Automatic annotation (TrEMBL):
The active site is at 66 (proton acceptor). This is Shikimate dehydrogenase (NADP(+)). Residues 146-173 form a coiled coil. The lineage of its organism: Bacteria, Pseudomonadati, Pseudomonadota, Gammaproteobacteria, Moraxellales. Residues 116-194 form the Quinate/shikimate 5-dehydrogenase/glutamyl-tRNA reductase domain. Pathway: Metabolic intermediate biosynthesis; chorismate biosynthesis; chorismate from D-erythrose 4-phosphate and phosphoenolpyruvate: step 4/7. It comes from the Bacteria. The gene is aroE. Its EC number is 1.1.1.25. GO terms for molecular function: NADP binding; shikimate 3-dehydrogenase (NADP+) activity. Shikimate binds at residues 15-17, 62, 87, 102, 216, 243. The keyword Ubl conjugation does not apply. It comes from Acinetobacter variabilis.
Length: 262
């Protein structure tokens, strides 16, 4: 009998999780069925309870339910606790477990590009949930300094205050978006600027060796500017695949190779 998995969100039509997990299953010999579940905005809890009551093994969570998933879990991984959001659920001995694999997905995607993370300085633009979710895994991977730039400086400062004790081995710093300057190994765009079409301006005073855009499949002024400088760039498809692989590994105990799916 095939193991039952699903992704839950609202909207959910755009999710590529089923095709990814089916591709991983084909590669690793796991017998699974993976479906999409559209939950009403006020019906998340009932939906996941029904899924697990019917024998579901694991569930991915996408917007806007990651914080609700975090609140539902009785057992959380360290990276989920720090992210305050959960994208991977599983039931064990009647207890709901949660993890956040987004940050590890980013780490694996960057490694697959052969960009170094050890002893690097990274700039992340944006101070929302996407940034919160990746700081701990980046530092675990050896990043020594992370600067968070945000339009509203106080949000970046709050994020640094929240996370600095979780990553004592690295330096965290907050700056306003208007103060973008300095030299970095990698700049990561974690804002929705590409999705909303807002122009994100990278000033000449900001120097960087690589540029990573967390979104994918959309025009990106961020990547356009990086490419105009001749800097190696990547959009976020690798991160999407990487976080899915990490979920697949948690549930099935076997880890597909990221490079096989890029």
């Amino acid at each position: 009998m095939s193991k039952q998995f699903a992704v839950i969100g609202n909207p959910i039509k755009q999710s590529r999780s089923p095709e990814l997990h089916q591709a991983f299953a084909a590669k690793t010999g796991v017998n699974l069925t993976y479906t999409k579940r559209l939950a009403p905005l006020d019906g998340f809890t009932a939906n996941i309870q029904e899924f697990f009551a019917q024998g579901g093994i694991g569930m991915n969570v996408t917007v806007p339910f990651k914080e609700q998933a975090f609140a539902q879990c009785q057992v959380l991984t360290e990276r989920a606790k720090i992210a305050k959001a959960v994208n991977t659920l599983w039931m064990k001995d009647g207890i709901l477990h949660g993890d956040n694999t987004d940050g590890q997905g980013l780490v694996e995607a960057i490694r697959a590009l052969d960009w170094t993370l050890e002893n690097t300085d990274i700039l992340i633009i944006g101070a929302g949930g996407a940034t919160r979710g990746v700081i701990y895994p980046l530092v675990q991977a050896g990043v020594k300094k992370i600067v968070i730039a945000n339009r509203t400086l106080s949000r970046a400062e709050q994020l640094v205050a929240d996370l600095k004790d979780a990553v004592p081995q690295a330096e965290l710093q907050a700056i306003a978006l208007t103060d973008l300057a300095g030299e970095f190994d990698i700049v990561i765009n974690a804002t929705s600027a590409s999705l909303s079409g807002d122009a994100l301006v990278l000033p000449e005073a900001l120097q960087f060796k690589h540029a990573y855009e967390m979104t994918y499949g959309k025009p990106s002024t961020f990547l356009d500017q990086a490419q105009a400088r001749g800097v190696p760039t990547s959009e976020g498809f690798g991160m999407l695949v990487g976080q899915a692989i990490e979920s697949f590994y948690i549930w099935n105990g076997v880890k597909p190779e990221l490079k096989d799916f890029l």
